[in-house]
Amino acid sequence: MSVVVQTNLGEHLPLVASGKVREVYDLGSSTLLFVATDRISGKSTYDVIMKNVVDQKGAILTQLSEFWFNMLQSKLETLQTHFISSGLPPDLRQSLPSDLATKLGPRSMVVKRLKVLPIESIVRGYITGSAWCSYQKDGTVCGISLPSGLKESQRLEQSLWTPSTKAEVGGKDENISPEEAVSIVGRDYAQQIKDLSLQVYEKASEYAAERGIIIADTKFEFGLDESTAPPSVVLIDEVLTPDSSRFWNAKTYAVGKSQDSFDKQYLRDWLVQTSQKGKEGVIMPEEIIANTLDRYKEAYRVLLNKTWDDQ
User: Fold this and answer.
1) Is the pTM value of this prediction over 0.90?
2) Which of 24, 51, 73, 209 has CA atoms 20 to 30 A from the CA of 140?
């Protein structure tokens, strides 16, 4: 499978947006084409885009997202998602050179075009990462007070909803309190986002736990389908991938320390250890790229019960 750093389908489709990882094209009829590149950035790397890429990552993220969209909709009757189909639309596939179509197909999906609600919805079942840093300072996470005496990586009695701002490319997402989220999207939509996020997290966590993965925390995004009355809150973007989630190895899990994981944390740790956190233009060594890819492949294998190399 070839590396994809950037796509250029402008001769065939209007480009709507080029994000940190994805390019988005207008398919007409209120639908979009998402194409996930192999760029690695966003919360995966402290909101900085790496100079080089992780080969195959975009395809892994796309196919994991497809799996979760389908599985979650089958388990949660009230959940709506923007996912329509995976791969390239047939007419576009036929109009592209065959090698390009083959390269883009596994990393593409057709989705509904919706109004994006401008917050990110983070659910935390365990205390780690920025939540652990905040708790150590003042016993709170995003303005929410927690019991004293918690240890790093400890499971929380109740999963927390901790939203953040949604930054533009080049910007940095900032954790905010639930009340600040209300001020951005309104109380009704904030409550719906919170409820749906917690439901999806709990259902996904049950599934993953049966397969030996702990989903410590994850990020969701939501849009608004204004064609319904009243408008519907819809799960969008990617969902429950190694880019957007912490996937811990249940076999080696232990409270009081950082965890073995199948996600972006390995790369984030490397950035911190080499004093490159937040720096632009970082070049990842081949060993770091290979080890990051191995973790993404392992998450795919465990969750879908098939190896990525069979693709």
Assistant:
1) yes
2) 209
